């Protein structure tokens, strides 16, 4: 295998994104599956609105490229990636609700509850979560049921009470803590890192983990990939916080400057942008280094770490 | 086995309810499971508020008693029952939200969003759904992963887009359709039955189905149980609609008279109370009859059908 060019990398990223779009389009078809009664048109439309129409599909990319490290087939990895994407998508729909972050814009278009209504957004989010576990449990994802339950458990543990949902709870609790003089009370670094590890890091890390499960990776390989996944998750979050602090809404595709307005602590607000960028760079090094066990085969995931750190939207 | 007395029946129902309470208490403990990072206190408390403190635990009872038909162990059936109960519980939390049914009272106490806030209720519901699939995928539910994925798929298909969540969407769409003169526009019987089959019938039927999966029931036995489960689900809904039309809030534990106020079609509004009661009685006969293949072993499930039809809360 020759060295990976940036063009190769973007072609792979794009290839997975297109495959995920096609797969989700098929999963969100009007025909009910065995065991379902009927798929109500409005709910299905809302779910399609939330899930289709692009996006980088970073989480599926992580599942697919990790599985490819081990020569595992793309079909199962794409389905597992679609499941993670459903979890990610439902969390965005619910987080955007007026009762939560109250956002009107997402990827440059109205959020689901703005385009439909709050009730439909709640239900579409709920049904997307269900769909994620449906996809993983289905035989089409892997012939071995032991692999399917392992995938299910990895996704559940990273996305529920002790992961993504818990992180959103901590985030809401941390927001809007102000002194009597109206100054935000900053969280400390430890609690900010933990919150972010739960809210966004956990399902990025579990995307990598799911690729390793599909690839029947050895324990040593899993541990190397766990280090990679954690570093990548932190890098992703710092890059996100930098975008919020420094980006323009038109480029980023959603409102920016929200963290400061909400008195929300990030590594950018706690350390300053310059130190946060140094931290980000260190995390990319850590992520790349963790892949040494895979030699040149790890180049796509290495490039992914750089891509995540440098992204502008 | 001697004939089942009513006391025996209530002792079994109560025994399962107590076991489920203990199991949920343990599942909603502060210690994170492997793969989880931390369980935030407020979120955990809200989930406990929604799930603990009694209730008939009808769905777990159905899983457990169906599994017992085949001599399958209680431990796995109770866990599967707890998973269904988490799905049922999350749906109540979300349905009670102001954006949906806007209910203030549930089982005689404030609904979750009243006791906490809307954001916490949305997140607690989300995490309860995740927990349901976590429970099913965990080895403790059954040593055979093929059984665990089958349970997962049964619960996902009955509770998502094509089942429970879809039914709630149809229900919201059907509500509040009034003529220009302010008279409610009734749904027809077919669409009302389909809506109810999705919203409440599907997970009652899948509770029975999950017991059959745990019991490795034959195809003929599964079909008999599917007939039972469908009839039971319809009977449950008619009994519920009769309670709403004729019951007192103090006895029922939640507001009554809501269906009429919302212009919601039920078999009671479409057929009249007397005809609905006759239909209910026919469904109980159908449910009981479907169990003939099990002989006297089916007595607990038979009694369950009568209990569901006659309940007063």
Compact description:
Chain A has 15 helices and two strands. Chain A has helices at residues 6-27, 41-51, 58-69, 74-95, 112-115, 118-137, 145-159, 164-174, 189-214, 219-246, 249-252, 258-261, 267-271, 273-290, 299-310, and strands spanning 105-106, 109-110.
Describe the structure in your own words.
- The first copy, chain A, is mostly helical and 313 residues long.
- Chain A has a single domain, classed as Farnesyl Diphosphate Synthase (Orthogonal Bundle).
- Chain A is 68% helix and 1% strand.
- In chain A, strand 1 (105-106) and strand 2 (109-110) form a beta hairpin.
- In chain A, helix 10 runs antiparallel to helix 14 (273-290).
- The radius of gyration of chain A is 19 Å and the shape is globular.
- At the A-B interface, helix 2, helix 4, helix 6, helix 7 and helix 8 of A face helix 2, helix 4, helix 6, helix 7 and helix 8 of B.
- Chains A, B: Keywords: Isoprene biosynthesis, Magnesium, Metal-binding, Transferase.
- Chains A, B: InterPro entries: Isoprenoid_synthase_dom_sf (IPR008949), Polyprenyl_synt (IPR000092), Polyprenyl_synt_CS (IPR033749), Prenyl_diphosphate_synthase (IPR053378).
- Chains A, B: One of its GO terms (molecular function) is prenyltransferase activity.
Chart the SSEs and their pairings:
The structure is a homodimer of 313-residue chains.
Chain A: H1 6-27, H2 41-51, H3 58-69, H4 74-95, E1 105-106, E2 109-110, H5 112-115, H6 118-137, H7 145-159, H8 164-174, H9 189-214, H10 219-246, H11 249-252, H12 258-261, H13 267-271, H14 273-290, H15 299-310
Antiparallel strand pairs in A: 1-2
Helix pairs in contact in A: 1-3, 1-4, 2-6, 3-4, 3-9, 4-6, 4-9, 7-9, 8-9, 9-10, 10-14, 10-15, 14-15
């Amino acid at each position: 295998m020759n060295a990976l060019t940036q063009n190769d990398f973007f072609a792979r990223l794009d290839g997975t994104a297109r495959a995920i779009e096609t797969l989700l389009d098929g999963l969100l078809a009007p025909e009910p599956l065995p065991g379902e009664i009927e798929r109500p048109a409005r709910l299905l439309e809302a779910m399609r609105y939330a899930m289709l129409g692009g996006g980088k599909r970073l989480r599926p990319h992580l599942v697919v490229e990790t599985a490819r490290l081990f020569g595992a087939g793309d079909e199962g990895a794409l389905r597992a990636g679609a499941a993670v994407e459903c979890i990610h998508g439902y969390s965005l729909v619910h987080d955007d609700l007026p009762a939560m972050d109250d956002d009107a814009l997402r990827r440059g278009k109205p959020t689901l509850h703005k385009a439909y209504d709050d009730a439909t957004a709640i239900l579409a989010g709920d049904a997307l979560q269900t769909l994620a576990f449906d996809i993983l449990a289905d035989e089409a994802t892997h012939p071995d049921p032991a692999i399917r339950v392992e995938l299910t458990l990895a996704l559940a543990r990273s996305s529920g009470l002790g992961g993504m949902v818990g992180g959103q709870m901590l985030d809401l609790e941390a927001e809007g803590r102000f002194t009597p003089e109206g100054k935000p009370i900053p969280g400390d670094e430890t609690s900010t890192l933990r919150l972010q590890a739960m809210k966004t890091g956990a399902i990025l890390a579990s995307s990598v983990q799911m690729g390793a499960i599909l690839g029947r990776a050895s324990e040593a390989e899993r541990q190397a990939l766990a280090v990679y996944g954690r570093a990548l998750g932190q890098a992703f979050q710092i890059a996100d916080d930098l975008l919020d602090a420094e980006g323009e809404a038109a480029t980023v595709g959603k409102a920016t400057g929200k963290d400061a307005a909400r008195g929300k602590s990030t590594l950018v607000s706690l350390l300053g942008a310059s130190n946060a960028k140094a931290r980000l760079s260190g995390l990319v090094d850590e992520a790349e280094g963790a892949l040494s066990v895979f030699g040149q085969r790890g180049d796509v995931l290495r490039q992914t770490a750089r891509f995540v750190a440098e992204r502008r939207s």
